[in-house]
């Protein structure tokens, strides 16, 4: 008995010491080792905070964490939720590519060392990662629309190239695909077991990160798919406007929006001061530092928990990051208020929304083609669509963001079809401009398809405030 009590006492003491040690490290009371370049440990400590619940006021660090979208436990989502008498008819998925290496570098600093090979036992981990790599290695002869057939099917560089998808980005979309598989295939049987190539519609821009993101989601959705059934179409425009890209009025809205962004930046003295401090650290003119879009590189450091760069003049630090990120948030807020971006979005998103309702309408006629559509795209694709739909409070598209349109049929009234719209798993149908009041007048849990059709065919042009009643007229109206 005495031995047992001593053993329990020692066990409790060991646990207490471990807790104290971890606590000291968490609060940085135990210094980390001094780096070889002689910088202080304080300036080189790891920067990833613990995720917390949403703060009561806007917090740039919290918003950045949401943007990173670091894979963790499987998320809860509202996709596929409907009363039992509704049948899922088709699904249309818009995604932003996953986590990527920066498109810009901070001048005169060392690039962050991120490994873009895929390693199964390295975090972030996914149980299908190794199988994904194996399956992609068998697809070298896959037939995609040019120039996609010249792109690698998965990231494979020990030091990431500019804009390259990372392992985090692959895992994000493997998770997305598996989640959609569990809902749309296992639960709702959207596709038969012997699905055919014409039941999928796959489209991506000509960037390796969008093609690879689409393939990762598709592999999570349809594991070990038959390469002969897969065909990705190439979309030259980030707006996915196909043959309807020429729109002078849209470009005028964009120019005015960019002017608004420029003036807002000039008014932010703290931002200019921060750019000046960072420019001195890296020893370049402030204008050059600003043009290098440092937030893109800083977000990579932040999302991958890599220290911000240092030079002999000092270190870029978290306070610099917070100022620039806060300005981004303020810019998004003013963008919603000024409405210039809305004009750009209505015209920019119309072609892809028009394609989507066309597919939905064909599905309501009993057509079995293109039951699952996937657009692998960018933040500058999803953001205009969100704005055009009236989802003004939606956060800027994070890495691996997903926007989904579901088409449902009422089995009790087979001629009636409804839509649900979900953003990152949240049902936002009744936040859209075309259906925000519907639930007040109707007990039905979805939005009638005709509401969306009417919005795309007519109300989008009415919202522009001009006399145009179609896309061509709205794009070319005089006197704007």
From TrEMBL:
The keyword Acetylation does not apply. Transmembrane segments: none annotated. GO terms for molecular function: phosphatase activity. One of its GO terms (biological process) is positive regulation of heparan sulfate proteoglycan biosynthetic process. It catalyses: 3-O-[beta-D-GlcA-(1->3)-beta-D-Gal-(1->3)-beta-D-Gal-(1->4)-beta-D-2-O-P-Xyl]-L-seryl-[protein] + H2O = 3-O-(beta-D-GlcA-(1->3)-beta-D-Gal-(1->3)-beta-D-Gal-(1->4)-beta-D-Xyl)-L-seryl-[protein] + phosphate. The keyword Acetylation does not apply. It is a single-pass type II membrane protein. Keywords: Glycoprotein, Golgi apparatus, Hydrolase, Membrane, Signal-anchor, Transmembrane, Transmembrane helix. GO terms for cellular component: Golgi membrane. InterPro entries: His_Pase_clade-2, His_PPase_superfam, Histidine_acid_phosphatase. It is found in: Golgi apparatus membrane. Responsible for the 2-O-dephosphorylation of xylose in the glycosaminoglycan-protein linkage region of proteoglycans thereby regulating the amount of mature glycosaminoglycan (GAG) chains. Sulfated glycosaminoglycans (GAGs), including heparan sulfate and chondroitin sulfate, are synthesized on the so-called common GAG-protein linkage region (GlcUAbeta1-3Galbeta1-3Galbeta1-4Xylbeta1-O-Ser) of core proteins, which is formed by the stepwise addition of monosaccharide residues by the respective specific glycosyltransferases. Belongs to the histidine acid phosphatase family. PANTHER family: 2-PHOSPHOXYLOSE PHOSPHATASE 1, ACID PHOSPHATASE-RELATED. Interacts with B3GAT3; the interaction increases the 2-phosphoxylose phosphatase activity of PXYLP1 during completion of linkage region formation in a B3GAT3-mediated manner. This is 2-phosphoxylose phosphatase 1.
């Amino acid at each position: 008995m005495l031995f047992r009590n001593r053993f329990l006492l020692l066990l409790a003491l060991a646990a207490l010491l471990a807790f104290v040690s971890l606590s000291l490290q968490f609060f940085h009371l135990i210094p980390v080792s001094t780096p070889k370049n002689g910088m202080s440990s304080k300036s080189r400590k790891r920067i990833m905070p613990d995720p917390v619940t949403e703060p009561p006021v806007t917090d740039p660090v919290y918003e950045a964490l949401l943007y990173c979208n670091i894979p963790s436990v499987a998320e809860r989502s509202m996709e596929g939720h409907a009363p039992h008498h509704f049948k899922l008819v088709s699904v249309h998925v818009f995604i932003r590519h996953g986590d990527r290496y920066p498109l810009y570098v901070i001048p005169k600093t060392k690039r962050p060392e991120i490994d873009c090979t895929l390693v199964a036992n390295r975090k972030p981990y996914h149980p299908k990662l190794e199988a994904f790599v194996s399956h992609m290695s068998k697809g070298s002869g896959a037939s995609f629309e040019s120039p996609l057939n010249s792109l690698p099917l998965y990231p494979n560089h020990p030091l990431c190239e500019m804009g390259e998808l990372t392992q985090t980005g692959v895992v994000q979309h493997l998770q997305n695909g598996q989640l959609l598989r569990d809902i749309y295939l296992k639960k709702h049987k959207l596709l038969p077991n012997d699905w055919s190539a014409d039941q999928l519609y796959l489209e991506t821009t000509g960037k390796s990160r969008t093609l690879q993101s689409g393939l990762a989601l598709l592999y999570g959705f349809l594991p070990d798919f038959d390469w002969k059934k897969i065909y990705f179409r190439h979309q030259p425009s980030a707006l996915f406007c196909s043959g309807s890209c020429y729109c002078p009025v849209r470009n005028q809205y964009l120019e005015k929006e960019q002017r608004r962004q420029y003036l807002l930046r000039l008014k932010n003295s703290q931002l200019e001061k921060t750019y000046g401090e960072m420019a001195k650290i890296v020893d370049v003119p402030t204008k050059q530092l600003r043009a290098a879009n440092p937030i893109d590189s800083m977000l990579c450091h932040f999302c991958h928990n890599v220290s911000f760069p240092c030079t002999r003049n000092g270190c870029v630090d978290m306070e610099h990051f917070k100022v620039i990120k806060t300005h981004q948030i303020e810019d998004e807020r003013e963008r919603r208020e000024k409405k210039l971006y809305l004009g750009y979005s209505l015209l920019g998103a119309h072609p892809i929304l028009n394609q989507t309702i066309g597919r939905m309408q064909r599905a309501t006629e009993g057509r079995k083609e293109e039951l699952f559509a996937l657009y692998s795209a960018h933040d500058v694709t999803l953001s205009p669509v969100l704005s055009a739909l009236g989802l003004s409070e939606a956060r800027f598209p994070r890495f691996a963001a997903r926007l989904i349109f579901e088409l449902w049929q009422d089995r009790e009234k087979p001629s009636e079809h409804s839509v649900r719209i979900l953003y990152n798993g949240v049902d936002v149908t009744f936040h859209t401009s075309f259906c925000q009041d519907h639930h007040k007048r109707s007990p039905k849990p979805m939005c009638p398809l005709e509401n969306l059709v009417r919005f795309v065919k007519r109300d989008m042009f009415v919202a522009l405030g001009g006399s145009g009643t179609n896309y061509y007229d709205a794009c070319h109206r005089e006197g704007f």
